[in-house]
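Working notes for the structural subgroup meeting. M.R. asked for a predicted model of this chain before we commit to crystallization trials. I am recording the input and output together here so anyone reviewing the notebook later can reproduce the run.

Input as submitted:
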Amino acid sequence: MDNILLIGNGFDIGHGYPTSYKEYDDMAQSFESIYNSTWWRSVGGFADIEKTKHYYLDIFMYVEEKLCEEFHSLITDNVWQEIFDEKFNKLNCRDNWYDFENYIKEDLNDPNGVAIKNIPKAIDDLKRFRRAFEIIVYLFPNYARNRQREKGIKYKRVSEIITNINPKYVINYNYTDTYSRLYNKEIQIDYVHGKANLNGNIDTCNIVFGTSDFEDDEKNKMFHEFTKCYQVKKFGIEFKFIEWLRDGNYTLHVYGHSLDVTDIDTLKIIFESKSIKKIVIWHMEKEKKLEKLKVTLGNNLYDAIKTKIELRKIY
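Returned structure, recorded in token form:
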């Protein structure tokens, strides 16, 4: 039976790449603090590049000058960057990829929310934020690979798991091409949420960043541009996995995906497919993963497929 690998942001994180929202926002705030200071252009680099964050920012701010200026313009006076900064500064534990996408819905559902006060600006700011994130998520994994080569860092356990899966297809919820770079460039990959392109701009950026549909039909009409479903259609993203699952017998391996409700539309199609005979979910905490899956799929679908599910611990 052939394998299909479904990957989320935890796949990149598992390879040591700084693509979580926690890492993004930490670096974005540090970037703004340094960029707006009077000294950084004259000092010639960070003294402490042993700190990973400083290593990345040192390259970005001193080598990628044009992109650095573009990034600054994109996150300045950006309502979503401000909202995410505020949420990030209140975190007391490790954040998860999906939390920040849910903050969009949380703010728009709040009559006193920040973004809801000016929806046209919020729409434009989301385009700007998506492009800002596209720049970082494209560049910083490249910096990380150079860093790992310099220090001889290898992520042996993760590599063993992924190599042994040896998938026929990859369903990729990331914006990065990490799998093809590290494992197999010949494997067909479905970039469900689009693919980061460094040479684009806010008008060509097609990475999907948003929330699930709203429960209220009126809100769906008002806020449709903030939903993943709308963005997928707008960007003309066609799901390859639908054709892959028309026939065949597959074991689905899920690695590094939060299984959050923001991706319910696509996850439901995949999990209930008759071509998926077995579902292997790689996890760090079994109970949390199962609970998340139940909430996302709903009791009826979960009960229908639970005999196909096998949980395997990463470490």
